[in-house]
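About this split. The held-out portion is used to measure sequence recovery: a designer receives only the structure tokens and must propose an amino acid at every position. Recovery is the fraction of positions where the proposal matches the reference. Here is one held-out target exactly as it appears in the evaluation file.
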């Protein structure tokens, strides 16, 4: 079978700079070769070029004309019957990149891109065409990837015994991966789910072999005595507490489990960290802890309060307690992106709960880098909050993801609105009103003002909450949770206010 059996798609190239010139040259040279040539190159037929430089208008690259600027993308896509687009400007700033991606999405055509300049391979024999790839989901967020101070993180983790609870989960396993890079003395993975713990353990053994001192333990943070045994044996310097139930609708139907795992589990691990003189205890929190409308969010706000309660105790001379709060992470277990992808790939409608629902997103590595840097700079008692840029409409994310598959939303792939789930907010928040904000050395990381915890009242109420949850007395436990977290309101109240403002 010859090259002619491959359909060459009519392609718009965005960018008449060096990368665009190299790309067109490579495609045309491969097509004109007397040999069988590159089958990948045969998939592209360069038809027109888009560039914002007015001096380049109507010039040609190997017979392919520059026809207009970025604002003309939708018009020229129709005029030239374009079938796909390649964004060939690897040095494009993130805000301009997002703007052009949005214009490309208007065409409803498949979009491919050349990677950022820092990740391009530019050796003599490197093929630029083979580095052209599909756009990644995180490139739809509309903000720069967050960068972190690796020197601070290295100094913080190097030669330390680091324990990660929930170490097999989405955040926990990435924490373990990133800690591994900084030459820790030992990593202890603690998780109740054996499959996840085994998976990350085997991944790191393959990567590091015996050079990494790694221990994987199956244990529940609810089990105080088992956790005490682990602290006594391994004597961690740093504890990253990522173990938690995080699924909002599931926790609405099983709220006692959110309280037992999140609140009781955090209290167990945090008080043991204090007793065993751990240097730093870092709790992973969530934007759902802010003015919570569900048992999961309220339980995580309670966890933040435990961290602040322990941080302000005068007898606490050794352990620095800190919480880190961020929004949804792309690709995590139970998040929307894997669900959307599965629905598109199986030819099913994409389901979105509400047309107005908005979320803040970040990538898992960004979230974990935040945790690491916050831990490195923590002095005790802070809630660190990441400036996550503009929130993203879930329906827009779904539409763009469908287009990434080369399909048209509402035509090739229906989007079905299923209604808000139990406990679900229309819009998440990152800061409680009374917390305020303080800048840090990283312009995208802020510190929420610490709220004074009434120690006697808090511990009494916490004991009532724990006892009710352990007895599975749901009515008493939820009442106790409302008492501890006065900002805990019903989703109906919250969503009504948000929709009225919209």
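Reference sequence for scoring:
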């Amino acid at each position: 079978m010859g090259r002619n059996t491959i359909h060459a798609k009519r392609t718009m190239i965005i960018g008449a700079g060096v990368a665009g010139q190299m790309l067109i040259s490579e495609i045309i040279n491969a097509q004109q070769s007397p040999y069988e040539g590159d089958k990948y190159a045969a998939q592209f037929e360069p038809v027109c070029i888009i560039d914002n430089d007015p001096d380049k208008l109507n010039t040609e690259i190997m017979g392919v004309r520059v026809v207009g600027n970025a604002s003309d993308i939708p018009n020229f896509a129709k005029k030239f019957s374009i079938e796909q687009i390649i964004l060939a400007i690897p040095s494009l700033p993130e805000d301009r990149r997002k703007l052009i991606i949005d214009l490309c999405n208007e065409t409803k055509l498949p979009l491919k891109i050349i990677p950022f300049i820092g990740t391009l391979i530019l050796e003599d024999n490197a093929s630029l065409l083979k580095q052209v790839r599909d756009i990644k989901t995180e490139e739809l967020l509309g903000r720069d990837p967050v960068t972190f101070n690796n020197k601070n993180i290295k100094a913080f983790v190097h030669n330390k015994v680091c324990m990660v609870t929930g170490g097999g989960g989405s955040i926990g396993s990435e924490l373990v991966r990133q800690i591994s890079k900084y030459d820790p003395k030992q990593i202890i993975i603690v998780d109740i789910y054996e499959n996840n713990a085994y998976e990350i353990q085997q991944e790191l053994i393959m990567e590091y072999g015996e050079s990494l001192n790694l221990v994987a333990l199956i244990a529940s943070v609810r089990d105080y005595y088992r956790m005490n045994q682990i602290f006594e044996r391994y004597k961690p310097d740093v504890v990253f507490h990522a173990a938690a139930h995080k699924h909002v609708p599931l926790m609405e139907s099983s709220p006692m489990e959110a309280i037992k795992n999140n609140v009781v589990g955090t209290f167990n691990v945090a008080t043991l960290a204090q007793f065993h003189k751990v240097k730093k205890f870092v709790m992973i929190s969530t934007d759902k802890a802010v003015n919570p409308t569900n048992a999961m969010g309220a339980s995580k706000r309670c966890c933040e309060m435990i961290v602040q309660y322990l941080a302000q105790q005068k007898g606490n001379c050794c352990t620095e307690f800190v919480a880190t709060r961020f929004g949804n992470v792309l690709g995590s277990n139970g998040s929307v992106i894997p669900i959307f992808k599965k629905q598109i790939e199986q030819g099913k409608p994409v389901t979105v709960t509400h047309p107005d629902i908005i979320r803040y997103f970040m990538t898992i590595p960004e979230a974990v880098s935040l945790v690491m840097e916050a831990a490195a700079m923590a002095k005790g008692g802070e809630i660190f909050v990441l400036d996550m840029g503009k929130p993203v409409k879930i329906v827009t994310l779904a539409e763009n993801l469908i287009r990434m598959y080369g399909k048209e939303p509402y035509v090739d792939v229906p989007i079905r609105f299923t209604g808000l789930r139990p406990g679900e907010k229309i819009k998440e928040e990152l800061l409680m009103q009374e917390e305020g904000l303080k800048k840090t050395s990283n312009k995208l990381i802020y510190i929420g003002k610490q709220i004074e915890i009434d120690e006697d009242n808090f511990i009494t109420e916490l004991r009532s909450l724990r006892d009710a949850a352990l007895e599975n007395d749901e009515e008493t436990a939820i009442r106790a949770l409302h008492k501890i977290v006065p900002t805990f309101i019903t989703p109906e109240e919250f969503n009504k206010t948000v929709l009225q403002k919209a």
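Annotator remark: The domain at 150-501 is CATH 3.40.50.720 (Rossmann fold).
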